[in-house]
Amino acid sequence: MTSTVTPARRGEAAVLRRIWRLHFWVGLFAAPVLVVLALSGLVILYSQPLDNWLNGHLFVVAQGPETVPLDAQIATAKQHVGEGYSFDAVTPPDAPNHSTRVDFLAPDAPAYPAGETDMTQVFVDPHTGRYLGQRSQLSGLVGFANNVHRMFGNDGPQIQLPSLWHLMDSAAYPDATIPVGVGNLWMELTAVWILVLLASGIYLWWPRAIESTKPLLTIRLRKGGRIRWRDLHALTGVVIAAILICYVLSGLTWSRYWGENWRAFSATVAPSTSVDAPSTPAKMGDYDRLGRRIAWAATDDPVYASQHDGPAPAPLSFSDVDTIAKEEHMVPGYAIIPPADSTVNGETVYGSYTVVNRWPQKTSEQRTLYLNQFTGQTITNATAAQDGALSRLTSFGIAMHMGNQLGVLTRITATLACLAVLTSVLTGLLMWWKRRPSGRTGVPGPASPATRAATPKKAVLTVSVAAVLLGVLFPVFGVSVLVVLAVEAVLVLRRRSTSGGAPSSAPPEDAPDETGGDIPVGALGG
């Protein structure tokens, strides 16, 4: 019997088969990370209510008529930490019934970028001056969620990777390599593959004549079985695809490797407005801590110096600085970082008090106030408006990622996105379980010779160009693609050697209905 399937239809079926295979394997690789990110992301989105529920004894106090001076509260906190711990910052209460938090660094705490410091947080009742307790910032449910969401960041095993921007401008970026945590690098790699997963999923869903009976925006609940899960999987993925792409791209700006190169690129292409004021050797990135993270665009900002005439007078008290911060309308929950003095060419350079709004924050609330430690005069008031265009865009994406930029609406969207990710992973697992042949794994094997021959050259070229572009934009992904291609080539050679050099007659472990169950078998089989 002569087949009536046209070459074009056969070619489209071949492309669908191969894209489905790609989608399956990438989904298998990315699913564990997606589940971890979704679950930990849900915890992070609701950190404040969870913290208040789990650690209310540290955060909530009885309101009183008077307040103990902030400096006395800091002194109380210092009495309850170990010897050698250094005072890092103080966060005055953001409400009358909340405690004061005083942060300390352990003597052996790694400096950024070697690690991301786990602070010791001490809590004091601002009305009585009573010590309430302390904790490690990465302890408990919220701390654990923050740790796994970043795959332990730059803590733990590290590798040195070349700084791409050092190759472009070695004077501005003298470090030839960037220390990158292995877990964080794995997260960065998976994030780019998730983009491939989303793109391939959209392609499989896209309406086409070959699948004319396949619904696009409905779920065939009465069908039951794999068809029901397939419809739910496709609809969920397509609805949230754009949101997830934005989350992945904004999350990549935090990654230790690609993110640092993106920071350098942003600062070079669209530099921030510079401030004409003496500065210290320190940068704001030196104060980057989880739990009081510096705004992304402010990491490379200098810490400005305090000028004075004659002998150095006594610095202002923290109570004085707190009063100035309130007068300047800093957002409640701001942190006050003490001035760090340094010696340059045998002379003392006096640092400034740095008051930074709590992170995460809306871009409109991104603000750092530098105060002369002797006079309290404002040296400069850094906001997002002074950042370059790319830095502002990145900060906006991060605020959206954290569920802050548009308030409750952003948080609801982020919550739905996390739940949708979990739904997609679960339905994908159910689809595989329903379609696998009895006694077999049901995972797709290599494409058959007929499928390869039927694949249009234009499709192969399009996918190749897309892979090259992604590989150039994300070098770690590019390396992984080369590894995958090398493994595939080795497997092909092994199959040929076991079959005596002839193409294997054994059919690949591909399902005939792998694209959704609606393509005619004749079209798929070629």
UniProtKB/TrEMBL annotation:
Residues 498-526 are annotated as: Disordered. Residues 499-508 have a biased composition (Low complexity). Pfam families: PepSY_TM. The chain crosses the membrane at residues 24-46, 185-206, 232-254, 412-433, 459-487. InterPro entries: PepSY-ass_TM (IPR005625). Keywords: Membrane, Transmembrane, Transmembrane helix. This is Putative iron-regulated membrane protein. It comes from Mycolicibacterium fluoranthenivorans. The lineage of its organism: Bacteria, Bacillati, Actinomycetota, Actinomycetes, Mycobacteriales.
